[in-house]
Amino acid sequence: MTAVNKGAGNDSEPILKTVGLTKRYGKRLALADLNLEMRGAGVLGFLGPNGAGKTTAISLILGLIGPTRGRVEIFGVDPRAHPGPALRRTGAVLEGPSFYPHLSARDNLRVFGAVSDGAAAARVEEMLELVGLRGRAKDKVAGYSLGMKQRLAVAAALLSDPELLILDEPTNGLDPAGMREFRELIRQLGRAGKTVFVASHLLNEVEQMCDEVAIIKEGRLIARGPVADIVNRGGAIELKASDMQRAKEILESLECVRRVTLEDERLVVEAPAESAVELSRALAEKGVYLAELRPRETSLEEFFLEVTQESA
Amino acid sequence: MNSLVAAELLKIRKRWMPYVLLLTMVAGAAFFIWLIGYVSYKDNPADEFSGEALRTFAFPWSIASLLDSGQFWGAALFVAVLTSSTVATEYGWGTVRQTLIRGQARSQYLVAKLIGIALVCVAFLLVALAIALVFSLLATAAAGETITLDVPDGPSVPEIGVMIARSAAGILPYGLLAFALSVGGRSTALGVSGTIGYMFVENILGAVLNELGGVAADIRSLLLGHNVSSLIAANRIGSGDYVSMAPRDAALPGDLPDVWLATLIIAAYCAFFLVVAFAVFNRRDIPRSKGTGCHCMGQWRRWP
Fold it and tell me: For A16-226, CATH number?
């Protein structure tokens, strides 16, 4: 299966591309034949249960581990063979933020800035301000909480103003307010033309900040698509009517309706969303009037559970 | 590369370890000059070993004795510990991953680290040597001896530089061994214990090979420690003995490989250790570290 993100109508060279990416540790297959493409601005959520292979995929993409088979291209370049051209335009937050504990936040960013390039070093103060750590910038990172380290990791990732951001469980350790602000940042970055790849198992988070999702399980890509399509893919309409029993009988007689069930004092009509007008008209003609009508949305969580259980 | 080396120096100089190691080296030098040398000499000035004790602490003979002991303990204690710790803790902290995802080539990462470690080792070991020489000058004056370079076979100032370079050449391969072990094993303990173990085991092996004679004795000529001994022996001032804190065979220059041949063999060891370190690091997977931390209820202050 191949996941393709075309972002804002950009048909240029892929920013991120994996072809048949496979990683095997002894007999254990950690990642199997992953084909992914990201071509423009936007946020792709990379979902999977714990141990599904998300971190392995990210480590392969960033050249930290070598593939058993397949290849990775970032901006058309293999990041393991040519890390400079591929990764200098990429920022990443790895799972479990790692810093020099004996250095301050400012010194940590200086070190990572020196590794990135000169321009990155000049953005240290700006990034500290961005993530709200300027007041604690002189403190040694050893005394930081996980949430503070996570914020520092985001600052380090954004230091070189990257075009591609790769984030592995970026909201780990953040409090609810921090999570909300982080979601907003990611959405802003996507709108600002950045390409963002976010691996997470927090479905609600992904649903709120991503344009598209790709789902992996046991190392295999099992589903992908735009979040909007997944959420609206239910093909069901919920309604309340003046006479529920009569409405059920009328609707069941319609050709476009597959099934009608009563759930929580609402009728759930399995029919295409565009048939809403037809349903409304049919009920009105028989003297049954609508109090409420809306398309039924499927949450990403429902979709995720559905596809991951189907593939089991 | 300059900014990378500057970053390495920042990382190392902000750790407490180099300073503790420096203090240990200085304490060792004080023990060596004052107790092993000066006190032994003053307690029994007419003793048959008093000349040996004098050459241990009195200037300029102390230069050779300090460089002899300094080569062994500088390599085993300072360089091996600092190198192994500097390399291996990056794995433990997970910062090696953080660095490599920024586009730095792996070989560039190792080169910057090597240069940073080398600069710190040179600076700190020279400081330790300078302090030890001050101890020696004070002890020489306290013993009523004249402070001068003008002794039989005494070195000139440039020759002192050559002596220091020989000693440094004896430290370098062990530093690179510690580097290769800690890069390969991702462990400070392996780097330190492997290097110190190698130094001691090699000494024992050398003695055994020498006893066996014949081809075995020839093989001994290829041992790293035997060739380092050749460089250290070339530092001798005159023919008199001195006390050495280095647990090595105190062979005379005539029993050891030629200095230039020894230098070549040491260079070959250095090249081998470097090739191993770079080959392993360039090929290896760098998996996720087991990070620790605690959850907090921090606040993001402002997004742009």
Answer: 3.40.50.300
